[in-house]
Amino acid sequence: MRRLIENRFGLLALVLIAMGALFGVAFVSRPAPVTQVRPQAVRAPVESVTAVCPAPAGSRVSVVTPPGAGGPGSATLSAIAAPDAKGADKKTGEDPGEKDAVIDRPGLLWQREIASGGGPLMVVGTGSMAAGLESAQTARETSGAQRGLAGVRCVEPGADTWFVGPGPAAAEMTLYLANPDSAPADITFMVYSGEGPVLSERGNGAVVKPGGHRVIRLRDLAPSPLIMALRVSTRSGRVAAAVKAVLGEGRGADWLPVAAAPATRVVVPGIPGTAGKRELYVAAPGETDTVVRIKAVLEDGSYALKNKETIEVPAGSTASIDLSTGIGGQPAALVLESDVPIVAGLKITGTGARQDVAFTAGADSIDLGSVVADAQATGGKQVSRLVLSAPFAPATVEVRLLPAKGEAPAPVEVKLAAAHTQEIRLTPRGSKDAFSVVVRPLPGSGQVYGGRVLDEATKDGQLVTAQPLAVGRIWALVPPAVDAPGVVLP
């Protein structure tokens, strides 16, 4: 019995020794650990773009895609349908022709005059026509309450959009909403006036059906504000929103550009170097009062404006300040800094017996480049300018013109000193026709902000419209894809 027990313990010892030897060999011969590389987001060309021209009737519509992308693609312009009283769909916009227009050549400006009457126009780009596609509408009126140049970049649908400018008590303010998607858009509005948030007694929301559009007078929502910030957001779905301001007989009309979302530092670019009044609007939509610090970036450098270094903005309200004596007659950008998020815009008033107005607003830096669909060189009558600013560091950009007819001129390199602004008159050699503009920061460039200004001298006074440069819809950052059981497991 004793020998049997000893044999069992001996066998167990042999098994343990053998297992230890096996683990030892496995430890020595194991492969080196694999270094874990975190996947990076990939920059991919945009393959689909949708934008809405809010009210193109009586305007010229411009559409362009910069050259560079290969392969098939097209941009289609079609009128947005809206339900009629009986519930059936009908065309309410004026088509660019008897049928939808199709563009399939990158690098060539497409431009048409749209007949009067009708509703919004949808521009959809796919494939090689999507990357960088831009569209705009510009109207020219020489008489009546709508006298002036009124231009707007056709807007893509989104879930949150801001506008800053005069209020319904100072101008006829009209909100244009369009839903090009296949799902309803449930929309809410909030107006921040000089006295604080304004809630309409008639409700502060609307629903726009798929493929539908609506036009709303802001006076019906909030009749009292002299100045305002307007937030258009959706509980579900997306909406393309645009706002037009008509100040009345002899005082001009134009569209408000979309303003950059609230941030503690906002740059308002594209202020032209022409004479006239300059009025800044700043809104603090949060629950904290703020003192906003103002710095002007001019041709000769950047500095605070004397006696206008700051503006106080109460919580949930909008304030304004006249900067005419500080930046009037000088191409400029404004850098606004605050301890709480703010939104901002600026009104540009032209000169003459009958005035016209233009608007610019807080904008992002054009790190990926920018495309302006509509610029003009009509025999010296209408003049197009770029106003470019490098508020924080030296910058270098390439400016390329894409004419509607003929060969495109060679691109021009523009160097911007840190904390300086340059105004560039755009004159395509040998061309008196329309053209588009592509602005691209070169490698190593600091942040660039800018705007395109279009003006025309008439016997009654200057006509003017402005458009801050928007980041080009050229590239999209595609998030990394990794193996994750959570995709299929609850």
TrEMBL record:
InterPro entries: DUF5719 (IPR043777), TM1070-like_sf (IPR036698). Residues 86-101 have a biased composition (Basic and acidic residues). Coiled coil: none annotated. Residues 66-101 are annotated as: Disordered. This is Secreted protein.
